[in-house]
Amino acid sequence: MADWQHERQALLAYYDRLRGRALALEEELGAALNSLDLVAALVRARRALEVIVIEVCEHDLGRARGTEPLVGLLPRLKEAVPASALAAMVYLNQLGNLGAHPKPVTELEVGQAFVALAAVLHWYVVEYRQGFGDPPAGTPTGTAPGAPPAPLAPNPYLGLDTFEEKDAGRFFGREALLERELLPAFLTLAAGPARLLALVGPSGSGKSSVARAGLLPLITSRLPCRLLTLTPTHRPLDALAQALARHALPEDPAPAGKAAEFRALLGADALGLTRIAALLWAHAQTPLVLLLDQAEEVFSLCQDPAEQGLFLDNLLAAVTDPAPRLALLLTLRSDFLGETQRFPAFNALVTRQGHLVPALDEPGLRLAIAEPARLAGRPLDQAVVDLLLAQSLGREGALPLLQYALSEVWRGLAAGRPPEETLRACNGVGGALAGRAQQVYDGLTPDAQRTARRCLLRLVQLGEGGPDTRRRVAIDDLLVEGESRPALLAILRRFAAPDARFLAFGRDAQGRDQVEITHDALIAHWGDLRDWLAADRDDLRLLARLDAAARHWEQQGAAAGLLWRRPDLDLLRRYAGREGAALSPLQGRFYRAARRLAGRERLLRGGALASLLLLTLASLGAAWWARQAEALAERQKLIALDAITQRTYETVDKLAKVAGTSQVLGELIRNNVALLDRLLALDPADANTQHHQAANLQRAADAWMQLGDTGRAKETMQRLLDVTRGRAAADPGNSVWQRGLSISHEKLGDLALALGDTAAAREAFRQALAIRERLAAADPGNSEWQRDLSVSHEKLGNLALALGDTAAAREAFRQALAIRERLAAADPGNSEWQRDLSISHDKLGDLALALGDTAAAREAYRQALAIRERLAAADPGNSQWQRDLSVSHEKLGDLALALGDTAAAREAYRQSLAIRERLAAADPGNSEWQRDLSISHNKLGDLALALGDTAAAREAHQQAHAITERLAAADPGNSQWQRDLSASHSRLGNLALALGDTAAAREHYRQALAIGERLAAADPGNSQWQRDLSVSHNKLGDLALTLGDTAAAREAYRQALAIRERLAVADPGNGEWQRDLFASYLRISRVRLAADETAEALEATDKGLAIARRLAGADPSNPRRAAETAAALGLRGQVHDAQGHLDLATDDYREAAKLNPDDADAQGALGWSLIRLGRFAEARAPTEQAHRLAPTDVNWTINLGHTYLLAGDPVGAQPYYDASIAQIPDAAALTQGPVADFELFIAKGWQVKACRAALARMREGFARRASAKPAGGAAP
């Protein structure tokens, strides 16, 4: 049993007064006090609240609960319940609503729930019942309205998307080709001397779909094998290495080390793939079937003939190796067969073992049109099938056009439009694709249209002597100077929307975001795109050459000899001078450098002769003076560098810890950077000055981050990246610059993660990791490289944790720990290695605690504590070791609180506080120590509130608030202090709400909101400020809903939702933003439902449910994700129920009950809805489960009796009816509960005689119970 001593004492007093008087409330309260775990205690506390709320609703308001949630009932009580008690009810309901809580239940939450329940019980026992009477609770009632027809199934047609292996069940029309020709041919070839089958056909013939959805599933059903699929891209050897690495290490989403190993093997000679296949065979003992899809990319995208040849030679060697370890299936556009002639051996094999994929004949087309719709439950009329067939037969490249038209037809059906009308509107099979593309384009603004045209043209690979084809391009490579990435993505996503799907997003081998045209059919059939290609072909060729030249120039360290000169520079000048011309940032830098070089060369040519004479005369006399001046200048430069370094590190570090110095600190940082720029300008090649510049930029970026100025931090970090990237490219063998480049990437990753841009953070962290892996592999004994590598793993672990990928986070943290254990073991006296090791233990402890593994968390925290105790004992004056020690005590306090050991938690928090008080007293001006001190006070305040000691909680939180106010007032420009102040107001608002002081809660929440608005206005791009702002709006919305002001609640929730929608759109992969958005939609739904706006409530619930399903699908082992989905389904069931759609509500309740089988409410809601539908036998199982989970809940007791009675078993029903008599509070509850139920059943004609008999017996039993009441009104 958990030990909540203080709060239990208060509840026990009320429990004693309830005993024998309110059985349902007594049972729930007793169960809460005696629960063995946190979840059960919280659930039972909320059920006790539910008993009270239902009584008040039905007794004072005359309103039956039905299936309405508590959040909808509570606002109706504002006239019957005092504000303080109502606030405690709302707070308790929020704590106990586990389906909407993203975090595990903690000891703190249970303690707060008990405090709130004590406040509710005080009002209920002392004021409402006035010495106690017989509480009249009731039971749910409802009607069984008719249900609408089932909604249309999801679109069974794929549009321009390729059928994949998972789509085999809806891939029709190729049965004869597959089973009679292609499968036998593959099985024969797989056992022969050359294991290659080529599927050849024109664009739009369906080769990829035949291979992926048709042939691969058949192969795996007949042949024990492993599958690997890839497309060549512009670097086919890299693509093959990456695909093989992912296959070899499926648990690693980006196995950079293995990919590099395989790339080296593939690049060594033609036997690389053969060797890799042997390695994979040794591991799995089954052959590998490799699908090379869109093999034409080897010729259309790869521009390196040597790489083309080596790639094809590797394939040929592997498929002809005597050991049958690899078989190759490839798809190739027939118009590229000519390109294969440059590689005679490959051409001969493809020609000999190629099979033509013909156009679909009439029977095949008919199946492809009709069968998906039939299986989806909405067959197409024969006339529609005939019309589509007539428009497709004989048309070149008809399949993608037909699939797109069918997808449009299905969307029309979902909107209520007949297929014939949809086909007329889009000009039939031939016009649907082009018409929809034109519609998307015409819907853009003129500026967006220009951007779309430029990007679409860049996504086409010009066919010199052959057809134009699609190509993949990195998103960043589509950007032009002055253009923002989010704005570009917003335009591209219009073409990738579910109702368009002309573009598809993905990632390359390095994890960079890419985009490509979904199918070549768009290039062939959209008239505007063809016209643009014809008009801009020369410019596109020029830009392709420019892009290649600029990349080579950058890779070679911006060597001047690689810049364009006339006549190429003249062509580029004419292009750049035209209206609307745009260059990428790299192209722009290349162009400006070329122009500067051309200008210098003109000056040199003009003055060369005169200068030669003057220099000859002057050089003899100046040589001696130059040597003297050079020595003096060098000494002066070293002095200046030392002074700047001291200002950058020592002075900045000191000022950063002093409140009120942010303005001075900012000026100092800017001046230091400017001074170094001036020094470097005097001698740009000086290595010493270069290193000082990079170090100063790094420290400047850190300082801007400390001040919360993310704009300047990003600008400085980008400049640092440009500097280190240029130096590393100019001197690739210089490990110092390589390390500097890795640090630059890491800094940008930290900033991106802080701003919520997880995609950018991942890209930056991976680039840093790749550099560090190379450095560590080249010099394994270098401890500095090893330490850097451990930091990269830790950063990726932090990112994975932020995205909810706990498995990846654990693996990354373990890799960091393994490196640090080796370093610490090799040099036990190195305190930095020891400190790093303690941090790794903390990381794994935090992860274990988040996953509920308290034993592993305790072990990790204790190991970290042991290290820190040793460090602090060895050097008591080291404030960093002392601070680390305080953090360890705090973490152990958090763990003790999670385990219910409040005494141990208090002791740990006090030890942490004692250390921080000493640090703050020794250095009162150190704002970092002051901030730590405020955190300790807040921890003790939260604990005191959990223990019911509101006076101690208020004192601790006010001490923390006073510190935070001083820091924020001393330095208003420090956004971190301002954010802390906002959080402090929110915490005090929560405390006030728990104590029933709604006026104080509103004032604190408004102050938090005001600070959040100022921060967000000052830095609109900072996603963390935006998220904080949304939380403040939600806090005010919750308070308004508590007070019954649904209009104010709706407005507050709407503002929070708008912010969260923007964040989620800007970074769709950020799991935290998605979970926030899910919670906002459910809040909107509840407030709409409370106001009887069911259509709006349903829309919001469906949006939240879609997010919950995506999150659960991405993290299927996380029970919290399943609980969120069940909560959304349960809420949607309530909305459908309120709309009278009982069938739909039942489906929702069924799925929620399946996802959350231990939730009595979910099981009971399903059972009651099935009873009202007349499905009595089916209703029994969920109702029995609800009764087992909550045996004292009269609703489930009575409903279980109903399932027996209505199924024709009155004898089986009677024990439950008899048991419920003792639980029904009074005559009003009897009338609104069982009486209303039986009247409903009789009205429906269900077991009329048995219902009347059961009702009569129940009335008699209740009358006997009422007549036995003792004088004074107490229940027996």
TrEMBL record:
Novel STAND NTPase domain residues: 156-559
Ranges of compositional bias, category Low complexity: 136-145
TPR repeats: 1126-1159
Keyword hit for Transmembrane helix: no
Superkingdom of origin: Bacteria
Name of a matching Pfam family: TPR_15
Bilayer-crossing regions: none
Entry keyword set: TPR repeat
Family matches, as SUPFAM superfamilies: P-loop containing nucleoside triphosphate hydrolases, TPR-like
Ranges for region Disordered: 136-155
InterPro entries: nSTAND1, P-loop_NTPase, TPR-like_helical_dom_sf, TPR_rpt
Protein name (database record): Novel STAND NTPase 1 domain-containing protein
Organism: Candidatus Thiodictyon syntrophicum
